[in-house]
Amino acid sequence: MGLVPLLSLLVVVTHMLLVAAIALRVIMKRPATGVALAWLLLVVSLPFAGAVIYLLIGERRVSRTRASRLEVVRGNLRSIAREALREGLTDVDWSRLPSVAHGIDHLGRATAGSPTVQGSSFELIPDTETVLRRIAQDVEHAQSSVLMEFYIWNAGGLADEVLAALVRAAQRGVSCRALIDAVGARPWWKGPQPGQLRAAGVDVRQALPVGLFRAFVGRTDLRMHRKIVVIDGNVAWTGSMNLVDPRFFKQDAGVGQWVDAMVRLRGAVVAALTATLVGDWALETGESIEELIEDVDLRLVASQGPADIQVIPSGPGETDDSLLQMLLALINAARRELVLTTPYLVPDESLLRALRGAAGRGVDVILVLPEKVDSFLTRHASRSYYADLLDVGVELCLYRTGLLHTKSITVDREMSMFGTVNLDMRSLWLNYEVALFVYDRGFARELRALQQRYIEDADRIDARAWTHRSFGPRLLENTLRLMSPAL
After folding, report:
1. Of 311, 335, 370, at which residue does a domain stop?
2. Which residue of the set 227, 260, 280, 380 is catalytic?
3. 15 carries an active-site annotation
4. Which residue, of 43, 61, 368, 467, has the fewest CB within 10 Å?
5. Strands (E), 127-215
6. 33-45 and 3-29 helices cross at what angle (nearest 10)?
7. What pLDDT, on a 0 to 100 scale, did the predictor assign at position 23?
8. 440 included as an active-site residue
């Protein structure tokens, strides 16, 4: 046999072995049937390249080191949950809440190991300028520790006041740590501010750094999308807002200023958010959980306020589909009204069916989205779902005065979800997120009032006009919909 035929045979055999190996791996991972068949088709039709693409982004794969650290973190968090049980912080009076609330709490315990804690106070703050000033003020008053975790940090405007407050806190001896995503804040990491923080004594680290070697041991497109601030272990912030001043952030994107909301919390829920952030820090740095808990003064916080809140963190290797399950349970609990706000709508099939089902059983479903988003692919893929929703009576509102970035759900003005999670597959499967499930009518009313302000600054989509659009846009949108799992 000549050299060329021999090489050809070798290539064919190698490709067949790769296909067999990937097929076995896909079968044993048990993804959705359609997803599995799509990957197998790609691997077969693109020799070698298809296998490489699958190994890079085909699974929610984390490195062995991260997986082992996750086990340690989970064990410590379970210990904290058991301590909360002993202290009675999980003794929620479910009789004063909607009957389905206790079931949703049970689901969160079973899938994420996170119980609802009773007794937290809240301030819902929809103004980004106020948020940045108040965070800076809290840091100025810090006595023992400051913990921060953000997807994006962007220099300029009032974000620099937060940085200055953090520098002063570290200089007066407060233990300050900041965990910032490596990719989301890439321009910031290349600037001078990380060095300024380190020079002042702030321990600032990258979350989920990327690199060629890391691509071989785990996925490099997993992102830390959480936004949490904890001061002295007794005040916490979370919500949709990155550490940016909208007046100085992505001004050339053509979408207007980003519109966000945050909640400032005190009481029992602070410990759960602190534990989430401490766990993330331990995962990224390898520091001892025990030393971190002592240094940041992680402790159970006494009940303070009326709200019962369940903190649900999610992410690859951390939980499977707990956050999706919680969202589905909340949507299915709606009996009269369901209002959702999200910047990115790329739902999986189960989420789409739940929204359609709610509208179909007579619930008033209102979905508020930004008119313009900062991603061409996501914008058009999202529009491919509009007809599915409009067909069953979902009211779609396009917010016109900026990029609406608040992620929220209210159900019957009685229960709520508020946090960092978008209604897209990236948030549900690839990002590390955190969501508050709030069982409190007072919070639901405040959040619903904020949603109403968004609705009043939005244009409703006419279902008849939408279905009669030209063929070209519909073809583009439906084509990009095929890329939904990667968006």
Report:
1. 311
2. 227
3. no
4. 467
5. 145-150, 175-181, 203-207
6. 170
7. 83
8. no
Q: What is the pLDDT of residues 174-212, one digit of tens each?
A: 999 999 999 999 999 999 999 999 999 999 999 988 865
CA 247 – CA 33 distance, rounded (Å): 45
- Let me know if 412 is a catalytic residue: yes
Q: Tell me which residue range forms the domain holding 470.
A: 322-486
Q: How many Cα atoms sit within 13 Å of 100 on the Cβ side?
A: 16
Does residue 166 sit in the same domain as residue 301?
Answer: yes
Q: pLDDT above 90 covers what percent of the chain?
A: 59
Q: Which residue has the tokens 């009518």?
A: 441
Q: Is residue 140 one of the residues assigned to a domain?
A: yes
Does 230 share its domain with 354?
A: no
- Per DSSP bridges, beta strands 431-439 and 415-419 are antiparallel
Annotated catalytic residue: which of 232, 295, 374, 391?
232
Q: Does 308 qualify as catalytic in the annotation?
A: no
Q: Model's pTM, two decimal places?
A: 0.89
Q: Assess if residue 1 is contained within a domain.
A: no
Note whether 18 and 121 are same-domain residues.
no
Residue 8 has pLDDT above 90, yes or no: no
Per-residue pLDDT at 163 exceeds 70:
yes
With respect to residue 373, please indicate whether it lies within any of the assigned structural domains. yes
Q: Can you give the three-state secondary structure of 340-357, one letter per residue?
A: EECCCEECCHHHHHHHHH
> Is residue 211 within 8 Å of 220, Cβ to Cβ?
yes
What are the tens digits of pLDDT across the range 346-404? 998 899 999 999 999 999 999 999 999 887 778 888 888 999 999 999 999 999 999 99
Would residue 280 show up in a list of annotated catalytic residues for this protein?
no
Find out whether 414 and 94 touch, Cβ atoms under 8 Å. no
Out of 181, 245, 280, 405, the active site residue is 405
Q: 380 catalytic, yes or no? A: no
Give the Cα separation of 484 and 487 in Å (integer).
5
The pLDDT value recorded for residue 487 is 52
CATH of the domain at 198: 3.30.870.10
State both tokens at 30.
């048990």
pLDDT of 127 > 70? The answer is yes
Residue type, 3: L
> 286, 222, 217: which is closest to 72 by C-alpha?
286
pLDDT over 70 percentage in the chain: 89
Whether 75 and 218 share a structural domain: yes
What 3-state DSSP class applies to 60? Answer: coil
Mean predicted lDDT score pLDDT of the chain: 88
Catalytic residue among 105, 181, 225, 260: 225
Q: Strands 235-239 and 262-267: what pairing?
A: antiparallel
Question: CA 338 from chain center: how many Å?
Answer: 20
Query: What does the pLDDT read at residue 485?
Result: 57
